[in-house]
């Protein structure tokens, strides 16, 4: 006997009602996540390059970096809270209004970071890092509601058999936002002196984000509600408390979704936040001491960790090249996920990520060619694993709890895979006296956990998207 859970989407009639034009869906889902990730990555880059010396004073280099990365992790703690908050309204009121709210919160918080006095300002030694934590928390709240809404916007408007392809639209926001944010840092580094960049140049990406937010809001106000959610409204199936219904009816897919996403998060923050720190750290004590003296910072040779020794501009440029491959393989992943199935594709990619983790230190010890190859390989794998998630996580849930369920999975995974990862990477790097073998091994461990979740899960390519549960 066939249940509604086993019926192919191609055998079901399309949800009734008007739909958003394809171009509007692409722009609205892509521009929103591009802006959100632009804001998020602007902070991630500043957290490594300038925030340790501007907001955390009176400690050695490693301690300041760890403090800055800890505040970076605050947003990941906030993201599950944001997923509950915005998931509630997304499943109760609708996708459109919730997406507007998440973008507005993220944008205002980011703009205010650009206005914030630093701990070097008299009287702000305590308040500067405290307000930075608050604004970082608000960034996390906004992003906690943004991704799921953008993924639902794309996939709930997608034609049958093309959800994975349309689901890559919001995923492209990650590489686009990263490239925009870091390209601005490169331009600033080339056009400003180190003193000017340290004094005010770092604020520019945060301040100009308000223009991008205004564009995103304009596009999203033109949307109509997705057909799938409109059907829930018309049938009176809206959950009074979506969080409660999600935990009662969909706890297993939330758990699976969290661990399916785990390796993706660990890989991304290894390839961006950690490699930025590792790549721009001087490779000798003499260079590290000279850099500290030039910046007017105390230097403790006992806390020195040897890095790759690239200049900030050179490594950012290499990283941006790698992220281009991230974007390319995000696009490639959509058709592959439709052709091979989500589960089969992700099992293969995750196994490759596990191997890459074991080879991480060897590849990055291979000079400039090795570093560039490592960035390209790691970020290509990132595109292949991140791209299908725009369809995979929403497909695990019924429409009435889809926003809440997919948002919780995505953002709880951010705590397990991203909030603590940068600090763990630095701690493993320090414990091994500058070796990064155990940093790569940490990625391998996360990939093995994700493989287990994928093996015990079911493929979601052919489910009826209006009723899907597991």
From TrEMBL:
Keyword terms: Cell membrane, Membrane, Transmembrane, Transmembrane helix, Transport
MF annotations from Gene Ontology: transmembrane transporter activity
Pfam family of the protein (one): Sugar_tr
Signal peptide: none
UniProt-listed CDD domains: MFS_ShiA_like
Membrane topology reported for the UniProt record: Multi-pass membrane protein
Domain Major facilitator superfamily (MFS) profile: start-end pairs: 25-459
Spans annotated as Disordered: 1-21
Domain of life per record: Bacteria
Chief location bin: membrane
Subcellular location: Cell membrane
GO cellular component: plasma membrane
Biased composition (Polar residues): 1-11
Transmembrane segments: 65-87, 99-120, 126-153, 165-188, 200-219, 254-272, 315-333, 345-364, 370-396, 408-430, 436-456
Protein name, entry field: Metabolite-proton symporter
Species in which this protein is naturally found: Auraticoccus monumenti
């Amino acid at each position: 006997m066939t249940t509604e859970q086993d019926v192919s989407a191609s055998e079901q009639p399309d949800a009734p009602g008007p739909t958003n034009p394809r171009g509007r869906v692409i722009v609205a889902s892509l521009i929103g996540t591009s802006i959100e990730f632009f804001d998020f990555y602007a902070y991630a880059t500043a957290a490594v390059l300038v925030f340790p010396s501007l907001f955390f004073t009176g400690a050695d280099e490693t301690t300041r970096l760890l403090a800055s990365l800890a505040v970076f992790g605050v947003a990941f703690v906030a993201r599950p809270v944001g997923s509950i908050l915005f998931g509630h309204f997304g499943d109760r009121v609708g996708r459109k209004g919730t997406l507007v709210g998440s973008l507005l919160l993220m944008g205002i918080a980011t703009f205010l970071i650009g206005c914030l006095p630093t701990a070097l300002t008299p009287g702000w030694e305590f308040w500067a890092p405290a307000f930075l934590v608050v604004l970082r928390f608000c960034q996390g709240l906004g992003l906690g509601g943004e991704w799921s809404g953008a993924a639902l916007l794309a996939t709930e408007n997608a034609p049958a058999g093309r959800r994975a392809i349309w689901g890559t639209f919001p995923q492209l926001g990650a590489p686009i936002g990263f490239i925009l944010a870091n390209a601005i840092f490169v331009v600033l580094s080339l056009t400003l002196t180190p003193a000017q960049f340290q004094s005010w140049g770092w604020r520019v990406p945060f301040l100009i984000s308000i223009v991008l937010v205004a564009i995103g809001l304009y596009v999203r106000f033109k949307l109509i509600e997705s057909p799938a959610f409109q059907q829930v409204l018309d049938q009176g199936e809206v959950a009074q408390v979506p969080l409660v219904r999600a935990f009662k009816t969909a706890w297993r897919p939330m758990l699976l979704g969290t661990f399916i996403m785990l390796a993706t998060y660990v890989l991304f923050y290894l390839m961006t936040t950690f490699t930025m720190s590792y790549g721009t750290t001087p490779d000798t004590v003499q260079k590290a001491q000279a850099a500290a003296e030039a910046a007017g910072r105390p230097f403790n040779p006992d806390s020195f960790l040897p890095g790759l020794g690239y200049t900030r501009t050179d490594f950012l440029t290499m990283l941006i090249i790698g992220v281009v491959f991230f974007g390319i393989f995000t696009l490639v992943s959509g058709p592959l996920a439709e052709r091979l199935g989500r589960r089969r594709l992700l099992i293969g990619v995750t196994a490759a990520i596990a191997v890459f983790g074991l080879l991480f230190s060897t590849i990055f010890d291979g000079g400039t060619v090795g570093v560039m190859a490592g960035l390209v390989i790691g970020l290509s794998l990132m595109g292949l694993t991140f791209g299908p998630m725009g369809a995979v996580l929403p497909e695990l849930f019924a429409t009435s709890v889809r926003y809440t369920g997919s948002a919780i999975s995505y953002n709880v995974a951010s705590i397990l895979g991203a909030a603590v990862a940068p600090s763990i990477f630095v701690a493993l790097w320090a414990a091994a006296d500058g070796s990064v073998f155990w940093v790569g091994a940490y990625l391998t461990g996360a990939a093995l956990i994700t493989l287990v979740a994928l093996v015990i899960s079911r493929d979601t390519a052919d489910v009826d998207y209006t009723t899907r549960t597991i």
